[in-house]
């Protein structure tokens, strides 16, 4: 787990999903405070443009290659990453782990209705884990949420505020509990059933981005970062 590949000044872990989960399992058992950033090309470009944010996430324990664009970039610089490790897949693995070992989880983010459905679905599918708190992403009093987390002492904190808010929240609050803190973007939308994840065929072909675009053409503006990401990777590699 010590091996990383640096892409646009961000150290991405170079491992498999299985090995990563083993490392997280050990850290949870040992009560090690852990900050996970799941970075796709969009986040990498944002970090490139915002040095303060780049410094913040570079201080995380793990930055995972969330997106086929990151994998392609690693091939461009001739340091190929082993696997794509997405925020959603990592969250699901953590939920399964929590269910097996009766761990405590705190959920933060999404709209209230989406969060409520997420809680119901998690409790139904993973009856042995304990949700010790859940709050939607539309809050004005962060201190109240911080106090809740501190009192609950969860083993896992899943933050679905979207970047950069989720990473900034984690950086400010991670010392409140010796937990695995992970930014999970729109994962609650999928867990709640509000948004369907790409079919297995799209996942296997690394075309989840295409499925998301076809399902929601309004997301086009978000994909505009991909050509610039590739340009920046090539430009910095060829310096």
TrEMBL record:
As for family, the record states: Belongs to the glycosyltransferase 26 family. TagA/TarA subfamily.
- The protein depicted here goes by the name N-acetylglucosaminyldiphosphoundecaprenol N-acetyl-beta-D-mannosaminyltransferase
**InterPro entries registered for this protein in UniProt:** TagA_TarA, TonB_box_CS, WecG_TagA_CpsF
**Which pathway features in its UniProt record?**
Cell wall biogenesis; teichoic acid biosynthesis
The answer on whether this UniProt entry bears the keyword tRNA processing reads: no
- Which GO annotations describe the biological process of this protein? cell wall organization; teichoic acid biosynthetic process
EC number(s) on record? 2.4.1.187
What role does this protein play? Catalyzes the conversion of GlcNAc-PP-undecaprenol into ManNAc-GlcNAc-PP-undecaprenol, the first committed lipid intermediate in the de novo synthesis of teichoic acid.
Query: What NCBIfam families does UniProt report for this protein, alphabetically?
Result: wecG_tagA_cpsF
Instruction: Give the originating organism.
Output: Bombilactobacillus mellis
Query: Is the keyword Glycoprotein in the record?
Result: no
- Top enzyme class, one word, equals transferase
Q: Could you list this entry's UniProt keywords, alphabetically sorted.
A: Cell wall biogenesis/degradation, Glycosyltransferase, Teichoic acid biosynthesis, Transferase
Query: MF terms per GO, please?
Result: N-acetylglucosaminyldiphosphoundecaprenol N-acetyl-beta-D-mannosaminyltransferase activity
Q: Which reaction does it catalyse?
A: UDP-N-acetyl-alpha-D-mannosamine + N-acetyl-alpha-D-glucosaminyl-di-trans,octa-cis-undecaprenyl diphosphate = N-acetyl-beta-D-mannosaminyl-(1->4)-N-acetyl-alpha-D-glucosaminyl di-trans,octa-cis-undecaprenyl diphosphate + UDP + H(+)
């Amino acid at each position: 787990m010590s091996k990383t590949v640096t892409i646009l000044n961000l150290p991405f872990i170079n491992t498999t999903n299985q090995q990563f989960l083993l490392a997280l399992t050990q850290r949870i058992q040992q009560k090690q405070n852990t900050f996970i950033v799941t970075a796709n090309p969009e986040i990498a470009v944002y970090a490139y443009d915002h040095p303060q944010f780049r410094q913040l996430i570079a201080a995380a324990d793990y930055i995972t290659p969330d997106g086929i664009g990151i994998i392609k970039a690693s091939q461009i610089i001739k340091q190929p990453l082993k696997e794509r490790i997405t925020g959603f897949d990592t969250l699901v693995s953590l939920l399964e782990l929590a269910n097996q070992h009766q761990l405590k989880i705190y959920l933060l983010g999404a709209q209230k209705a989406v969060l409520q459905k997420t809680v119901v679905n998690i409790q139904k599918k993973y009856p042995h884990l304990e949700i010790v708190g859940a709050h939607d992403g539309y809050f004005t009093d962060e201190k109240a949420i911080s106090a809740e987390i501190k009192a609950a002492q969860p083993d896992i904190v899943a933050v679905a505020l979207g970047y950069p808010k989720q990473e900034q929240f984690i950086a400010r609050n991670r010392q409140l509990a010796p937990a695995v803190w992970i930014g999970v973007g729109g994962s609650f939308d999928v867990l709640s059933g509000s948004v369907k994840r790409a079919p297995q065929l799209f996942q296997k072909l690394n075309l989840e981005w295409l499925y998301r675009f076809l399902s929601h053409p309004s997301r086009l503006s978000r994909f505009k970062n991909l050509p610039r990401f590739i340009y920046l990777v090539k430009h910095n590699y060829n310096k």
